[in-house]
Amino acid sequence: MKDKEIDDIIRENSSWLRAFVRRKVRNRDDADDIVQDTLYQLIRTIKVLENPIGHVSSWLYTVAHNLIINHSKRNREEAIGQTDDNNENFMTEISEILIADDNESPDFKILRSMVWKEFDKALTELPQEQREAIEMTEIQGLSVKESAEKLGISQNTFLSRKHYTVVHIRKRLYSLYQELINK
């Protein structure tokens, strides 16, 4: 397909696409980013595929809708536990505590032990199916696809279980983090 034809497709569809996304996404900059990403994927797909997209407007709607959903999920995940300015560093600091092996001071060992205990407590509070999601991917090293197949569930169901597990663990570790920084 020629660049002029692609330009025509974009010109024909960009107005309704922008209006659709802006109705769904409150932040104008985020909405514009989603529109831009959608159009970028259109161009990339047209250039890669030998067969052009049959129903461009349906295809654009689907891609934009999926990007809006991803944007909403990302915003919800970012909002979890954001109660003060210290939250930005929370996950970085927790990760450093769990994986750092160069700090063997007694205080650091105690801190690491506290974080691991809280992590274990958080896991035990979860239903077995959600615990399995973390254990299979993070401990056993299985892919999402392998884990879902092993459990006989869809990948989306597996990802949903893992998401709820991560949210729960994050909340528990954030509570510990708040206690530690307020001491």
Describe the structure.
- This protein has helices at residues 3-24, 28-48, 56-79, 87-99, 106-124, 128-139, 144-151, 155-181.
- It is mostly helical.
- It folds into 2 domains: 3-78, Rna Polymerase Sigma Factor, Chain: A (Orthogonal Bundle); 87-181, Winged helix-like DNA-binding domain superfamily/Winged helix DNA-binding domain (Arc Repressor Mutant, subunit A).
- Helix 1 (3-24) crosses helix 3 (56-79) and helix 7 (144-151) packs across helix 8.
- Residues 80-88 have low confidence and may be disordered.
List keywords for this structure.
Rna Polymerase Sigma Factor, Chain: A, 2 domains, elongated, 183 residues, 8 helices, mainly alpha, Arc Repressor Mutant, subunit A
What's the SSE blueprint?
Blueprint: H1 3-24, H2 28-48, H3 56-79, H4 87-99, H5 106-124, H6 128-139, H7 144-151, H8 155-181
CATH class of the largest domain: Mainly Alpha
Our measurement of the CA-to-CA distance between the termini, rounded to an integer number of angstroms, reads 64 Å
Number of strands: 0
Order of helices and strands: HHHHHHHH
Assign the CATH topology of the largest domain.
Answer: Arc Repressor Mutant, subunit A
In short:
This protein is mainly alpha-helical and 183 residues long.
